[in-house]
Amino acid sequence: MSERKTEVLAVLSRLADAWNDGDAAAYARWFTEDADYVTFFGMNMPGRALIESSHRALFEGPLKGSKLVAGSGEPKARFVRPDVAIVVSGGGSSPAGGKPEPGRESTLTYVLVEEPEGWRVASFQNTRVSDPAASVA
């Protein structure tokens, strides 16, 4: 694995650590100041400050004690420029830290940019994994 890919994937690991610690400030720190964070239900939370405040509410409320867990397979990382990486991975959350609960598995897409202080997430999208055929009656 290249050094740059290792650096990019380390950011995802630090995001998971901050989430698992319930630390909204540490979680938000890994996003650019003007990041876009698109939730699994399609809401865009623009900017680091909103990412932090919304996650603080989640960590103190409905997602208190939840743990991020990796999906199956390795994250796919590719560099569209030396300072811009796109990562697609699987994952989800679990109150117990085990496998994602049914209905909580997601495909996660990150766009990371290299800034003077290191790699940061400029855009994130969480898309729930579902079976479209199951919704067709």
UniProtKB/TrEMBL annotation:
It holds the Pfam family DUF4440. Coiled coil: none annotated. Residues 8-121 form the DUF4440 domain. This is DUF4440 domain-containing protein. The lineage of its organism: Bacteria, Bacillati, Actinomycetota, Actinomycetes, Pseudonocardiales.
